[in-house]
């Protein structure tokens, strides 16, 4: 092999190993159990909101970086009475949301400091894509939670 080919091969090997390591790290950070049926997802969540996503930015809390999605909550089905204006999604397990005033149903967890956290494992769906059964479930799921 020529010197150039050896150099290219070594560079590719290093990039491959770096990528495998990064992928393994992300997989450890984000491990989703089997997808829950919508009723179970709604019942098990601390927060259930219908909201427009109006912006996002990367934030660093010191312990981990995350995406802060600014939201305009239309309806809080479950969660804090004072309203919700942002949800946080950790890098490595990020829930990817469109930020052009797209409307979603979002489930998440409420942390002790009052912030709402979501991951790609949560039940998050475009509002316009909810089935009739899912919309009906939202109206009366609390009566069906055990």
Walk me through what this model shows.
The chain has 146 residues and is α+β, with helices and mostly antiparallel strands. It has a single domain, classed as OB fold (Dihydrolipoamide Acetyltransferase, E2P), CATH 2.40.50. The protein is 29% helix and 32% strand. The chain contains 3 helices and 6 strands, in the order ααββββββα. The chain has helices spanning 3-29, 38-44, 132-140; strands at 47-60, 65-78, 86-90, 102-110, 116-117, 124-126. A 5-stranded mixed beta barrel has the order 1-2-3-5-4. The relative contact order is 0.18. The model is unreliable at 15-28 (pLDDT under 50). It is found in: Secreted. Keywords: Disulfide bond, Metal-binding, Metalloenzyme inhibitor, Metalloprotease inhibitor, Protease inhibitor, Secreted, Signal, Zinc. Disulfide bonds join 30-93, 32-121, 43-145. GO terms for molecular function: metal ion binding; metalloendopeptidase inhibitor activity; protease binding.
Contiguous helical run count? 3
Biggest sheet overview: 5 strands, mixed, barrel
What is the averaged pLDDT score?
A: 81
CATH topology: OB fold (Dihydrolipoamide Acetyltransferase, E2P)
Percent strand: 25-35%
Rounded to the nearest angstrom, the distance between the terminal CA atoms is 68 Å
Helix and strand pattern: HHEEEEEEH
Low-confidence stretches: 15-28
By secondary-structure content and strand pairing, the structural class works out as: alpha+beta
Shape by Cα distribution:
globular
Question: What CATH architecture do you see?
Answer: Beta Barrel
Subcellular location: Secreted
GO biological process, one term: response to hormone
Protein name: Metalloproteinase inhibitor 2
GO molecular function, one term: metal ion binding
């Amino acid at each position: 092999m020529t010197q150039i080919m050896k150099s290219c091969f070594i560079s590719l090997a290093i990039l491959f190993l770096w990528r495998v390591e990064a992928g393994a790290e992300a997989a450890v950070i984000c491990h989703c159990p089997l997808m829950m049926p919508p009723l179970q997802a709604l019942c098990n969540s601390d927060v259930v909101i219908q909201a427009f996503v109006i912006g996002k930015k990367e934030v660093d809390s010191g312990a981990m970086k995350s995406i802060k999605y600014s939201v305009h909550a239309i309806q809080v089905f479950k969660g804090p009475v004072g309203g919700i204006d942002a949800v946080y999604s950790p890098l490595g397990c990020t829930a990817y949301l469109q930020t052009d005033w797209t409307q979603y149903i979002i489930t998440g967890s409420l942390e002790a400091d009052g912030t709402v956290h979501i991951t790609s494992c949560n039940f998050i769906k475009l509002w316009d894509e909810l089935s009739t059964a899912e919309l009906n479930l939202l109206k009366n799921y609390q009566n069906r939670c055990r």
